[in-house]
Design goal:
Elements lengths: L11 E3 L2 E3 L4 E2 L15 H12 L4 E8 L19 H13 L3 E7 L7 E3 L2 E3 L3 H4 L16
Helix pairs in contact: 1-2
The chain binds flavin mononucleotide.
């Protein structure tokens, strides 16, 4: 069955979730969080505007769940309970306009940004952990 030219405005389903339309904002990292990864007023405003503009579903930008998995400065984080309340304001703003929101949880792996001596670096494991410099760990001994 064809929904016609306005199919994008017809409700859609993802599993048990009913979405008011098929306008989905793809995950897009805004880098508008605080240095600690907490949502800011600007971020709340942006998501509120997207929902008010009609997005049925918004996927957040990637949210690091572990500081070593951070990808970029001012990225949203959920590595500590204190980040929940600021992010909940984003969710509430989207729900106010009948929008839904998915949190994209992430760990950037080899693309992570790490901080050494107050400077941001991309990990360089072959150098940092070359065979010669790899720390020697004692073999675990068996308990008797
Ligand atoms: C500035 C920018 C930030 C993005 N951030 C994320 C992100 O945080 N997570 C993610 O999964 N994709 C991210 N993407 C990828 C987009 O979600 C999307 O997949 C990509 O732009 C291709 O979409 P298109 O095929 O509609 O052009 C980002 C893209 C751009 C341009």
């Amino acid at each position: 069955m064809s929904l016609g030219p306005l199919a994008v405005m017809a409700p859609g389903r993802i599993g048990r979730l009913l979405i008011k339309n098929r306008l989905i904002r793809a995950a897009t990292s805004e880098t508008m969080a605080t240095d600690q990864g907490e949502a800011t007023d600007d971020l709340v405003r942006l998501y509120s505007d997207l929902a008010l503009g009609g997005a049925g579903l918004i996927i957040t930008g990637h949210i690091y769940v572990e500081p070593r998995g951070k990808y970029e400065p001012r990225q949203l984080g959920l590595d500590h309970d204190s980040r929940i309340a600021p992010l909940a304001r984003v969710t509430e703003a989207v729900h106010r306009y009948d929008g839904l929101i998915f949190a994209e949880l992430s760990h950037a792996g080899s693309q992570s940004l790490i901080r050494i001596s107050c400077r941001w670096h991309r990990p360089s494991f072959p150098t940092l952990f070359s065979r010669a410099s790899r720390p020697k760990c004692p073999m675990p001994t068996r308990r008797k």
